[in-house]
Design goal:
This is Large ribosomal subunit protein bL20. The chain is an all-alpha fold and 120 residues long. It has helices at 7-20, 32-70, 76-85, 92-101, 103-119.
């Protein structure tokens, strides 16, 4: 069986890891063992923090939506129930964006829901 030399792939793997840890401090940017650990932990933190970012954004949408609804004597919880009952397909992100950026359209949506409420 012929001999297989793998030095090229080993060097390529080292280069890739060291490139990803380029701006890190101390030995984490130049020592391979520390760089591997640092790169792995960075990936774990990045994955976790993307989830936290989504969680934080949803909380912000709820706050914006509730602030816009308070002007119309509605609470967030009641409004969400009305939206669900009427099968309106707008999610919290869109509604919060409308409340913040396009209050006229948001007011029209609320009036439509209130009219449906009065008519029921």
């Amino acid at each position: 069986m012929p001999r297989v030399k793998r030095g090229v792939m080993h060097a390529k793997k080292r280069r890739r890891i060291l490139k990803s840890t380029k701006s890190y401090k101390w030995g984490r940017k130049k020592l391979i063992k520390q760089a591997i650990t640092a790169a792995h932990k960075a990936g774990v933190h990045a994955w976790r923090d993307r989830k936290i970012k989504k969680r934080t954004a949803r909380g912000l949408w709820q706050i914006r939506l509730n602030a816009g609804l308070r002007e119309h004597n509605l609470t967030y919880a009641k409004f969400i129930k009305l939206i669900k009952d009427r099968n309106i397909g707008l999610d919290r992100k869109i509604l919060a964006t409308l409340a913040k950026d396009n209050p006229k359209i948001f007011n029209a949506i609320i009036e439509q829901i209130k009219n449906n409420l009065a008519g029921s």
